Amino acid sequence: MDTDLAEVARDPRVSSVDFFRLLPKTKVDSPIGPTRTPNFYYRMSSTRLTMLAPSRAIRAQLPKELAPLEVAPELGSASLIFFRYDVCDIDFYTEAAVGVAVKPARHGRLGFIDLVAALKNDHLDTYVLSLPVSTDIAQVRGHDGYGFPKWVTELDVDIDDSRTIARVADDAGDTDLALSVPTPA
């Protein structure tokens, strides 16, 4: 977790590490012993699938203090995001996130106004329901270090210029969730 930035800069997949040279890392104690934080991600790819869902179904998954952000009356949104971290401080891993848009802490009366404001500011408050990852270190850093609902499973993510393919395995190793779509331009 104390990555040699000169070595990362030599990786042909990484365009630059200049930004990371400006950011200090802090040594912190954790359940796995001393670590350095934050984690840096130098080369990654992701894809997002956003769907409309009944607010009632979303509300049932949220802590009582949160409410779904509605795009229309009784209609919210949920997203499935797949990540592929090719070059990062904790080695290669893949991840899938299931999240729902929630009303911000200081929200207005109408969800549509909150939605427009979020889109205008390029910031949408999201509650993460699940976050499977493909490696033990990603699970430990994410769960124990940051409190995210992470667990390890077989998880494949391939994103190239023509196709995006992702698969998340269930406890038995069978396919729990799969996605295969053309990669948008």
Automatic annotation (TrEMBL):
Pfam families: ADC (PF06314)
Family annotation (InterPro entries): Acetoacetate_decarboxylase, ADC_dom_sf
Domain of life: Bacteria
Protein name: Acetoacetate decarboxylase
